[in-house]
Amino acid sequence: MYFPYLRGRQYELIALRELLENNKLGSAVIPIIEPVRLSPTLVSTLEGFKDKRQKCSIVMNPGVGSFLEEYSDFSKSNLATRLDSLIDESENFYYVSLMSKDYSLEENFKSIADIGKQITVCKKPDDLQGYNKNYREQETAYNFISEIGRLKREVQGNKVKISDNFVKLARNTDYSYKDDEFFSDDHKYFIEDEYKGFSDYSIVGEEYSESGFAPYAVAIHIVYFDSDENLRIHHFVSETNQDPTNPAGKFKEALEKLITFVNEDLVERTLAINEFEKLYKTGSYPGLGTVKKLSIMHHIELVSKYLDRISGDSE
């Protein structure tokens, strides 16, 4: 099973929605959404998963963003009511609790009775205190752990490996100095390593920042399979990076590099790659949020196709 972990920003939610609408999420993919805002896009995306009877997960005690404050805000009561109804009615959702040293069930914005629909996340040894106090004797659906020996020894049952495979650099220009690197082989070895699945933060990375700024360079991050079916990531970076002006021109420079890579049959075609090709042919600039959206879509669809292939579910 693959559990792409996304923070629920607008472009991440739209990425999931477009994959869902185009039937590009296989049964072995269960997205996890850590909501950073209580937004119409969040609720409509979850409604789409419910309507399609596609599995997904929502973090009940998000550690970043302003979701918890907004959930209690009377001005957003309509969205909160819709979200509550989804949680009460959907049979295909899982509910994630982020463990910490002092975690308690009261941190979750809504209580969930069915333990078989719950997921825990432990990323450091201190998180075990919250896990042991609240979930150790419970038969949760899955338990996410980072690759720390103590966590693997002490967390009970249905373990999922969670990793941050994206090496985040301070500036987009820095990616041009190492434009191709190893990304992951978790999809190959998770069963051998005695995990029920694997999880990552796609091409965004675990680090979360509220602030945005105009970058000097545009970088398109695309994962692909090498000859050994390891996932590698290639960074396509613009050339004219002296100042933050002309993002459309910088995008064109980066996109030209990506299209050359695609034409050399180095990247498996996906819905997102087809969209990048359309943007290249029309000379359109969709904005940096859409660039991230397409890169996420490509990664998730690629892994979904791989898992379908090895399980015999591919068309």
From TrEMBL:
Domain of life according to the entry: Bacteria
NCBIfam families assigned to the protein according to its UniProt record, in alphabetical order: sce7725_fam (NF033831)
Protein name, entry field: Sce7725 family protein
